Write the structure tokens for this entry.
Amino acid sequence: MTKRAPIWLIANAASGSHDAATIDAVIRLFSRSGRPIARRIPLGLRPLPTGQQARAAGVSLIIIHAGDGTISSVTAGLGDWDGDILVLPGGTMNLLSRALHGDLPSIDIAERAAREDIPSAPIPVISGGGFRALAGIVAGPTSAWGEVREHLRNADLAGLAASVPEALNETLSGDSIAVDGIDEEFEAVYLQPATTGMDVRGIVARNAVDLIAHGWAWLAGDFRKGPSVELGTFPRVVLRHNGPIGLLVDGEKAETRSVATFSADLSSQRFLSCKGGIEWS
């Protein structure tokens, strides 16, 4: 019998959606399919695995049960390792998992993957400003809502009560973001990977009604549902701001220079998809 290539499983135990029973069930599913998981890596307790380590071990598949930000960090650490990635929803928003698998729970996704019943392919990503995003980037003062999301994820009611007014104030008083080639400026700009480049939306937050709508969208788990204007799909975008640009890169807070260029790209790794390809809802 031909020996199968090793499989690694990475899980973020610190995530609010982490469920040890789900991880154990995933391990059993792969074992019963004759594809035992060779190594289980708990995030936060050990360094992120590198592409060199994965190649040296002959790993063919890495399963990641985490949120968008953690998945982004893990895949970035893997560099140009060109194996398969199986994303299982284990975060607050899980935008990437939903784009790849719909609203399927981890067990259903893993069951299909264990049977080798899911195709894989590279996915579109966004590179720029010193970062790479798999799910999307929010650029501008509205990224202050990331702090709200963190308090929500950690069930920190006191922090939530303090961060919501701060986010509202920053959204109202912050300088707007300009997009080269677009006449209008916006409170923030959202960049999302697309099969033909990157979809760009101007985020609108100019009055109390807009702010309330944004607040509900963030608290409900999908900031994309707040008021916005579709600007088009582009291979390259230049953003300008009066000072450093605050970012949420796959949901994680970051910052880049006042003029930043973002480009559409493809991932080095291939991602398994129950949808047969990535499809943003």
Observations:
- The helical segments are 20-32, 51-56, 68-77, 95-101, 106-114, 145-153, 157-173, 208-220.
- The chain has eight helices and 17 strands.
- The radius of gyration is 19 Å.
- The mean pLDDT is 85.
